[in-house]
Write a structure and sequence with these properties.
It comes from Maritimibacter fusiformis. Keywords: Signal. Helix 2 packs across helix 5. The protein is of the alpha/beta class. The chain has helices at residues 3-14, 88-104, 127-132, 172-180, 185-200, and strands at residues 24-26, 51-59, 78-79, 111-123, 139-150, 156-168.
């Protein structure tokens, strides 16, 4: 079973929790012990990554529940309104894929790899939360699993692990001010996704 199928199975089996109201980042250390390709390095020694990402594969499982209710805390795994009515899973897939591809575009290491990402939670804000929740009480909660595989052989270099982040969401007057400056939920979440994956892969800058 491939890492992406394992992650999909785990998503179905264990389900998902609700958004927390504390900002943090779920990530691994910038230098992780690699699985496979470790050469003669002693056991437990972390090796620096030297990747060139040639493919990013994102999955948004059909098992994730889409919340369309206009409430402060919609009940579901996906809360996303900024693209207007449509297939929310496809919209989230597109947003995450675009952000991650941009994040790794300048990585030019010796080993060609592909990323396999499975979204497990994507909580932006409903209209009600965005425009009437008090400042400081809402978050963007984005969670997923990520695996790194050799692009040529499919060898698992870094097994699927949970990654993600929670950042303060701008509401009320802050949201209106963002709109006036052309700042969207998409742009803030995309920026956080870029930073997250670059940290995960040990990228600098």
């Amino acid at each position: 079973m491939t890492p992406i199928r394992v992650a999909l199975a785990l998503t179905v089996a264990f389900g998902l929790g609700a958004c927390a109201q504390v900002g943090d980042v779920t990530r691994a250390s910038p230098l992780m012990p690699l699985i496979g390709g470790a050469g003669d390095a002693p056991a437990g020694v972390a090796l620096p990554r030297d990747y060139k990402v040639v493919a990013v594969e994102v999955a948004v499982p059909a098992s994730l529940v889409v919340a369309e209710d206009n409430s402060y805390k919609p009940r579901g795994d996906i809360v996303w309104r900024e693209d207007g009515p449509g297939d929310r899973r496809a919209q989230v897939d597109g947003l995450v894929t675009d952000a991650l591809r941009g994040a790794v575009a300048d990585l030019n290491g010796a080993r060609k790899v592909r990323l396999e990402v499975v979204v497990t939670r994507f909580h932006a804000l409903s209209e009600k939360a965005r425009f009437s929740a008090p400042s400081g009480l809402a978050t963007h909660d984005i969670q997923m699993t990520m695996a790194v595989l050799d692009a040529a052989t499919g060898e698992v270099i870094e097994a699927a692990r949970p990654v993600g982040f929670k950042i303060d969401a701008h509401t009320s007057e802050d949201a209106i001010a963002d709109m006036a400056r052309g700042i969207t939920q998409r742009s803030r979440i995309s920026e956080a996704l870029v930073g997250m994956v670059r940290r995960e892969l040990g990228a600098t800058g």
